[in-house]
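Much of what follows relies on a compact textual record of a protein's fold. The record below shows the convention in full:
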Amino acid sequence: RSVLCGLDVEGTACPNPFSYVPRLLTMNSDRMTFFQRVKNMLYPLGLKYICQVSLTPYERMASELLQRDVSLVEILASGSVWLFRGDFVMDYPRPIMPNMVFIGGINCANRKPLSQV
């Protein structure tokens, strides 16, 4: 549904309001109480710290390969089209940018006719 650590949101520069877009793994829907909205806002803060610690070696490796200081968000933001393996009909309403394309169902097999038995 999304890229690890919210890098898709930062990379696309797409607004992702805490007020009505539920965060992954919070078990919230788009209709939240006040306390669920607070949880929806606080949950990513802890996750952001964990992601920063775990992704730092990859940022260093990318900076070494590109021979300049670079962040993962900067690398991801340079993409001109974002392909999301999902369907906007099956997800909660959220803002999307024009360069975000939903390609859900590409892994589904072709249908087969049912047997007569």
Residues 27 and 79 are 30 Å apart (CA to CA). Helices lie at 7-12, 34-66, 72-77.
